[in-house]
Write the C-alpha cells for this entry.
Amino acid sequence: MADDLVGWIVLSLTILRKGAFALEPSFDVPVINITVVVGKTAILPCSVEFLGEHKVVWTDEFSTLLTFDINRIIDDDRIGIDRPYNKDWNLIIHDVRVKDRGRYICQINTHPIKTKPVELNVLVPPQILNENDDGSRREILSKEGETVNVICNVSGIPPPSVKWYRRPLEDTLGSKKERIVSELDRPKDRQREPCIYTVHDEPGIGMEGEILVIHNVSRYCDGIYQCVASNDVPPAVEMETAVFVEFQPEVNLINKRISQEKGKETILLCEITAFPQALSYWMYHGQEVVSSERFKVDIYPEGKAHTITLSLRITNISEIDFGEYECFASNKLGRDRESMVLNELRKMKVNKQTTPAVVPPTTRSRQIVGLVATYRPTHARDEGESYKGLVKDFQQVENGCQSLNEKRTITAITLFFALLLTSYQFLNQGGLPTIELVLQGFKMSSIRSSVHPKDLNQPWGTILKPEYGLGHQKMTDYEIDQTVDRLYKIPATKERVYERPGKKMTEEEIAEMLQRLTKAPVEKIPDSDRRVTKSTYNEMGVVSSYAWKGYN
C-alpha cells in the first residue's frame, strides 16, 4: 500500500515537470492607446501572466523586430524594455519624434502566437513656418485701394487654429490690441471695423485662417497684425506683421485766423498727416519761410501715426509780417496745402470815466416826498386860478403825508411852506407864481446794492462811483437761485377739455340738418342789387353786406 502511494507522487511530479497541467500565458492589461507630446518619453505597457518559458517580442506596424526578451534588436538607443515588476514587459521610447507614432505590437511566442497592439499618438505644438529666422516682425507696404494678403502658415498635430488681432502702429505695448472679427460676431458696444476682412473668401465664419485678406486697403487699415496659433498643446505661438499704407498728405490747420500785436511773439501751427513724410514747409507771399533771427521753423511728431506738427515761431512782429501764410506738404503720391491769416491786434481805448450814481435807498417801509416848484408868468393864469391851484397842490401834499410817520410829515409840510413864503416875495415883480408839487416815492432797500457805500449814514443824494459801472446791478444769492429756478422750470401745459354745448341732437334734428346741408344752393343776388342806401349801419362804414341783411 505504501509502495502505491509513493508511485502516485512520483507520477504527479513527473507530469507537472513535463507541463501537462501548465497554464497558458496571457495579457492582464487591456488594450489602451498612449498619447505623448513630441520630445517626451513614451511607455507602452505590456504585462503577461504565467509566461513560463515563453518569450516576449515587440514589433512595429511594419513587423520590424524591436526587442526580444530583454534585449534590443533595432539599432536605436532610444528604444528599450522597462520592467518595474517581473510580469511587466513595457516598451519605452525616449525623446519621442513625430515618425514614432503608429501601432506597436507585444507578442508571446505561443502556438498560435498571442499579440496585444498599442497605439502611440504623438502631439506636436503649433509652429509658424513663414516666420523670420531672427524672430523679427514681417512688414508689408501697400498703397490705398490695393488688396493686401497677410499670411501666417502654421503646422502642428492636431492642426492648429489661427486667430487674428490688430493694434495701432504706435502701440508698442499691445494695450490697444483687438481681435479681428466678422461683422456678424462684432459686439454691440464695439465700433465697426474700418476695413473689410475675409478669410478663405468667407467673411461670415469668423476671422480664423492662415491668410487674412484686407480689401480696398486705406490709411485706417494700417497697423500691426498679429496671428496667434494654438491647438491645445502648449505653448501657443504668434507672429506680427506690420502693414504700412502709403497715402498723399493731408494738411490741417488748428487755427485759420490769428491776431497779435506789433512787437509781440506768435506761433503758427500746422498738422500734416502723410505716409511717407517727404516735404513740408511754410510759405509767405509765394516764398518758403526758412529759419532766421525772427523766424524759427520746427517739426515734432504727434501722438497719432504718420502725423507731424509743423510750427512757425515769429518774434518781434512788424507790419510786414501780417498777411496770409500757407502750410505746404507733398510726397510721391500727391500734395496738399492750407492757408491762414495773421492779423494785427489793436488795443481798444477804454474810457475810464464813469457816470456817477446816487446812493440807492433801502427797502424799508418809508416814503419820501419830493417837492419841485416851478414858476410861470402872471399872464398865464389869473389870481383866482392860481389860488385854486395852490390849494389843490397843498391838498395833494397833505394826502401824501398821511401815510408817513410824524417826523417825515412835519419835514414835508415845513419844506412846503418855506417854498410858499419864498414865492410870495416875487409879488412886487409882477405876479403870483404857481407852485406844482410832485410826489415821488422811492422804495428803499436795506440790502447793500452794487455801489457799496462805505458809510450807510451818509446824507441822501451823496454821489459815489459805482463798482460795476452803468447798467449792472449785482444780484444776491437768493435772486440768482430764484432766476435759475424760474428759467429752468418748464411750464406745464394745460389740456383743453372740449365739451359740446347744448343737448345731444335727436335723429329728427340730424336728418333735418343733413337735408338742409345737402340741398342745392339758391342763386345769390349780386351785392350791387342789395346795396343799402339808408341804414343805421352807414355810420359804421357798412354799405353792402350779407351779414347785416341776415343772409348768412
